[in-house]
Amino acid sequence: MIGLGTYAFFWQHSDRVDDPLTLRGALEATRALDVELFQICDYAPLDAMSDAEVSEAAAAARDFGVGIQLGTKGIPPAHLARYLELAEAFDARLVRSMLYGPGSRPTLAEAEAQLRAALPAYEASGVTLALETYEQVATTDLVDLVESIGSDHLTICLDPANVVARLELPRDCVERTAALTGNVHAKDFAFARQPGWVGFTYSGAAMGEGLHDYEHLLETVRPRERGIDEIVEHWLPWQGDPETTIRTERAWTQQSIDYLRSMS
């Protein structure tokens, strides 16, 4: 299923705009785009919500007919246990995380111990934990970690854009993680020359206009055959003023949805 994530509304949520979008507003906008899945990912207000506010947000998602996934950073067992509680409140079947989180940079051996401690509760609840590919951990190390644990409820959230900062090729990342992928972050990316031709900027691009060979991802991972969700995100730079930035962000979201649906 194609879904939207918090990063598709990055600037609309931001305090750089006069009237930041609420979580309810993002859910409503998601449904208005005929999308039925939303990933609340790295969304700081969620961690500050009371139980009553969480229940209210979960009820809003159900009212709009939007399924929920969650996303966070870090894998300390207590932190993952809290996100399992949130997942159960939202009826979410997937939590995306990263090995490193605020104040936590475990070694691979420590990460394995933390995950082994946290996963039995996820398995018992039928919730999947998806660890994202990113530049701080080599893709081969992440794959080895997931394989060594060998749980059906531990998968990889594939985001090949992230690994470029580690001088890995996105195509290689896709191929190494394909068999273990349980979630996809769908965004495009490109390099652009800096003014004066001194270096490059690596940033987002409108879907289908950058360097991401998404057709290769679909052929290799086969997310639609395997029931793996594709969550739209953006790396949209600030466009100079709030109005232009929000207008562009919304246009990129629509283009991403149209592009992904055209590849069905």
Automatic annotation (TrEMBL):
This is Sugar phosphate isomerase/epimerase. GO terms for molecular function: isomerase activity. Residues 78-254 form the Xylose isomerase-like TIM barrel domain. The keyword Ribosomal protein does not apply. Gene3D superfamilies: Divalent-metal-dependent TIM barrel enzymes. SUPFAM superfamilies: Xylose isomerase-like. Keywords: Carbohydrate metabolism, Isomerase. The keyword Magnesium does not apply. Pfam families: AP_endonuc_2.
